[in-house]
Write a structure and sequence with these properties.
Its EC number is 3.6.3.27. Belongs to the ABC transporter superfamily. This is Cobalt ABC transporter, ATP-binding protein cbiO. The chain has eleven helices and ten strands. The chain has a single domain, classed as P-loop containing nucleotide triphosphate hydrolases (Rossmann fold), CATH 3.40.50.300. α3 crosses α4 and α3 packs parallel to α5. The protein has about 270 residues and is α/β, with parallel strands linked by helices.
Length: about 270
């Protein structure tokens, strides 16, 4: 079973800032997980430990039971794929094709295997007609999907997305949702940082809320968003429809208009 575990994980930057303060977290299986919280909560610092980009100041990070310090970041790349928030930090080759093929080539994969993956992944990320385009000539949305495709080409068992909806339009968000579902069907673990609570509530059953370098709450999405005091402490605003349901006195936590109407109906029937 795929797993990421942190044990009393602490991290201090060179400035002395203590970004993580003894985080204990266990993520496993293929159910997608969202990590949320305000800027500076420690979300990106945390996930950068999952493939060794950052190394613990103290404590441990175990990937599938192996301490992250036992391997280099380059060796972890085939197990834990990390998609940066800013695609310009990840793109460096002359064509989309070369970007997508780079990882598998470094892994020494057979040309036929790479060609098969290229066909599948370029279609999944919507770039099958842009393979010979320079990445910097792509739109912001296309650049993001180019970096996602480059990571997926290595078929890591664990995939980390850092703010994938940033700058995305509705079509881009739908494509992201399809990718997350595809990863789950392929029995891969998807871990996503996001400030988009509509996107989170649509796509993730498990939500981890961080605040000031700690895990504030970790649980089912309904449980997490039924705790307004906790959300306020983490400076997370629930989706507007969730606020409407709470203001209406609903006992259930709702995330869609349809869910709101159904919850109202059930509550009225229970009161009869």
């Amino acid at each position: 079973m795929l797993s990421v575990e942190t044990r009393n994980l602490e991290y201090r930057y060179g400035s002395g800032h203590r970004a993580l303060k003894g985080v204990n977290l266990s993520l496993q299986g293929n159910d997608p997980v969202a990590i949320i919280g305000q800027n500076g909560a420690g979300k990106t610092t945390l996930v950068k430990h999952f493939n060794g980009i950052l190394r613990p100041t103290s404590g441990n990070v175990l990937i599938n039971g192996v301490d992250v310090n036992e391997r280099s970041t380059a060796r972890w790349a085939g197990t834990v794929g990390y998609v940066f928030q800013n695609p310009d930090d990840q793109l460096f080759l002359e064509t989309v094709r070369k970007e997508l093929e780079f990882g598998p080539l470094q892994m020494g994969l057979d040309e036929r295997v790479i060609a098969d993956r290229l066909e599948r992944i370029s279609g999944l990320v919507g770039l099958d007609d842009k393979l010979d385009v320079h990445p910097f000539d792509l739109t912001a949305t296309e650049k993001k999907f180019c970096t996602i495709g480059a990571v997926l080409m290595m078929e890591p068992g664990i995939v980390v997305f850092d703010e994938p909806t940033c700058g995305q339009d509705m079509a881009g968000n739908r494509r992201l949702e399809q990718i997350i579902k595809t990863l789950a069907r392929q029995n891969r673990l998807c871990i996503t940082i996001s400030h988009d609570m509509k996107f989170v509530t649509r796509n993730f059953r498990r939500v981890v809320v961080m605040n000031q370098g700690n895990v504030l709450v970790d649980g089912d999405v309904d449980e997490v968003f039924s705790q307004p005091d906790v959300l306020r402490r983490s400076f997370v605003a629930p989706p507007p429809i969730t606020k409407v349901g709470r203001a209406a006195g609903l006992k259930e936590t709702v995330f869609t208009v349809e869910g709101l109407m159904d919850a109202v109906k059930r509550q009225k029937e229970s009161e009869v």
